[in-house]
Amino acid sequence: MSKTGHDTFKPGAIWEDFDGNHINAHGGGFYYEDGTYFWYGEHKDQNSLAQVGVRVYSSKDLYNWSNEGVALSVSSNPDSEITTGSVIERPKVIFNKKTGKYVMWFHLELKGQGYAAARTGVATSDSPLGPFEYIKSFRPNANVWPKNIDDSEKVYNEEDKSLEWWTSEWKASLVDGLYVRRDFEKGQMSRDMTLYVDDDGTAYHIHSSEENQTLHISVLTDDYLDFTDTYVRVQEGGQNEAPAIFKSGDTYYMITSGLTGWSPNPARSFKSKSMLGPWEKLGNPAKGKGAELTFRSQSTFVLPVAGKDDAYIYMGDRWNPKNHIDGRYIWLPISMSNGKPEFQWHDEWDLSFFETASP
Ligand code: GAL
């Protein structure tokens, strides 16, 4: 038992760090290196605007976490894109072996614009603990068509412009690329996001695009600091957000949520033999009582446990929009059942779950 004394996970409970404070790292992303896990997340106050930035915690055992301070700080300069009061969500960090840099991508909304900007931002650091230096933000894939769109779908026409939301004509047009066409020149919308680095070092940026109606998966450049011209649309019109990716054997799995803002909804899961798809629907991976609202959580990450085969943790946020600082963390062990990821509720569990779980 360590200093803070946690030797189990208690999903949904207050989770104290070494200083005795509830961990403040929402919409989190995880990075593992040499026996240490790093947890990056949104530092929330009562409201959800960025007042501090992205916080980082470290742990050797996943139960006990040290607050390592602010990895990416908001800027006091009112002209900065990441000024105090902007929205910085779902930060994820990966390491680039070629440049030796830690690279953070996140969802950025410009101050005072609600969720209209729909940008992704990038920052780098020489240390996993930061400080990360902000580089830029933008809407990705401007002037680039996705690999899986037909030539006939590349023209934004008068019909597209006059469509009313939620009509069957709108839905059909949405599926065949309405918003890709609309946003072709200014770049594709990028909100909820995650990153995934494959075994060959290729990094992917996965985000909700097209007014949150369709996911985009894009290949990043070798230095992980930009988008290449390769991206695909995934589950067109499927309304997925909060993506989390992991690989088991030679198959990629993705867990997402539907679109109900801070309120929970049934999770979804998918699998594919390639990051660029096609992705096949597998249904709600949550099982048992409470599964219909994913145990009141929304996915943020799936963490492979270091040193254990096929041991994955579902990580979700139980948001509290009335007092965001009180948002809770729902971590549950994933079991693979007939080639599908599944997780059930546990009031309390520990990593020995993975020793006893059936394959
Ligand atoms: C959720 C999303 C969160 C946050 C929120 C704002 O759907 O997953 O990351 O953006 O909406 O309402």
List the helices and strands and how they pair.
Blueprint: E1 26-33, E2 36-42, E3 53-59, E4 66-73, E5 87-96, E6 101-109, E7 119-125, E8 133-138, H1 158-161, H2 168-175, H3 178-182, E9 193-197, E10 203-209, E11 214-220, E12 227-234, E13 241-248, E14 251-257, E15 268-272, E16 280-281, E17 286-287, E18 298-304, E19 312-318, E20 328-337, E21 340-344, H4 353-356
Parallel strand pairs: 17-21
Antiparallel strand pairs: 1-2, 2-3, 3-4, 5-6, 6-7, 7-8, 9-10, 10-11, 11-12, 13-14, 14-15, 15-16, 18-19, 19-20, 20-21
The structure holds beta-D-galactopyranose.
Task: Note down, in words, how this protein is organized.
It is a single chain. This protein is mainly beta and 359 residues long. The chain has helices at 158-161, 168-175, 178-182, 353-356, and strands spanning 26-33, 36-42, 53-59, 66-73, 87-96, 101-109, 119-125, 133-138, 193-197, 203-209, 214-220, 227-234, 241-248, 251-257, 268-272, 280-281, 286-287, 298-304, 312-318, 328-337, 340-344. β13 and β14 (251-257) form a beta hairpin. The longest helix has 8 residues, at 168-175. The radius of gyration is 20 Å and the shape is globular. The model has no long low-confidence stretch (mean pLDDT 96). The chain binds beta-D-galactopyranose. Residues 27, 89-90, 192, 241-242, 261-262, 298 line the site of beta-D-galactopyranose.
